Amino acid sequence: MTLYGVGLGPGEADLLTLHGREVLRAADVVYSPGRLSRSVALEHVPEEKIGDLDFPMTRDPDELRSAWKEAAEVVAPEAREGEVAFVTLGDPNVYSTFGHLRRTLSAFHPDVEVEVVPGVSAVTAFATALGVEIEAGSELTLREAAGGKAPIGPERMLLFKVTDAPATGEKLADAGYDVTFGRRLFMRQGETVVTDDPDALADRDYYTLAYAEKRDSKRDATGLFE
Ligand SMILES: C[S@@+](CC[C@H](N)C(=O)[O-])C[C@H]1O[C@@H](n2cnc3c(N)ncnc32)[C@H](O)[C@@H]1O
Question: Does the Cβ of 98 fall within 6 Å of ligand 1?
């Protein structure tokens, strides 16, 4: 039997893939690492199916390791006997908590079968939500910008964890980038915002990203109209 890492997509229930929905429906138990992923999972499975795992709000690596070890102790026997799903927002292989569980299982319970069901990631969904086209041939770099950080260098960047949009926005503008921010894209929970004004997103919301493009990089990648 199997543990499935299921990508839920960005948050709207109907952006879960058909395969993901089948796996959730067939699962004996569905675990979720947070409130938001739980509420999306609940759009597809009854509450009785949702399992209970404790995830401490900490960055301490020892505490995290022991929490994931405990979670793996619970999940491993269930996945040997039946079908278990662990859901994450977006895709389970992109900046996701599922990676911790997969690594812990492979270290301590290597006989457990693991399969990943991909989901619509914010890495791609942002382009539609922000009305951006990443043309064939262009570069796109994924980075983090928590706490007002502003990585610079690449032509085009997608920044996750933008928790201080005004500070990140100002630094990027000074470094020569045009920036568009997106909050709670394709999510039913909370308000979706797309804006070029970082001050409109001054309050902290973890589900905020930014797309930054160097001002001088605007070009027609096809070369058709140059
Ligand atoms: C830990 S990463 C998880 C990424 C996820 N596994 C995926 O594939 O989309 C969380 C970050 O992704 C971004 N993010 C994820 N979903 C989002 C959404 N629906 N709207 C805006 N940002 C989102 C935010 O920047 C957030 O801080």
Answer: no
Is residue 76 in contact with ligand 1, taking CB distance under 6 Å?
no
Q: Are 162 and 204 in contact (CB under 8 A)?
A: no
Residue 155 · residue 170 · CB < 8 Å: no
Give residue-wise pLDDT tens across range 114-160: 999 999 999 999 999 999 999 999 999 999 999 999 999 999 999 99
> Could you tell me if 113 and 6 lie in one domain?
yes
Number of domains in the chain: 2
Ligand 1: atom nearest CA of 183 is 21
Same domain for 63 and 168? Answer: no
Instruction: Please state, in angstroms and rounded to a whole number, the distance separating the CA atoms of residues 51 and 160.
Output: 28
Q: In what order do the strands lie in the sheet with 208-214?
A: 141-144, 156-160, 208-214, 177-183, 193-195
> How confident is the model over 15-44, as pLDDT tens digits?
999 999 999 999 999 999 999 999 999 999
Both tokens of 72, joined, read 């793996």
Cα of first residue to Cα of last residue in the chain, in angstroms, is: 56
Coil, helix or strand for 113?
A: strand
The residue segments making up the domain with residue 8 are: 2-117
Q: What angle do CA 196, 35, 179 make, to 5 degrees?
A: 10
